[in-house]
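Repro:
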Amino acid sequence: MVGDQLDRDIAPAKAAGLETIYFPGGFQPRWLPAVGKVGPDYTIASFAEVPDIVLAERKAIAGS
């Protein structure tokens, strides 16, 4: 799951057992939980990073 909101994207996806990629947006309300508290699996600065993460995860799963 790729998301830009910790409380609406990342936390529910983690609760559902999904791997998460957090892409912090420009708007960060004060009520959002801290990144460390939610614990996304990855934090990215560009969507261009997503394919490498997904491919690495697929290789890790295939190698298990």
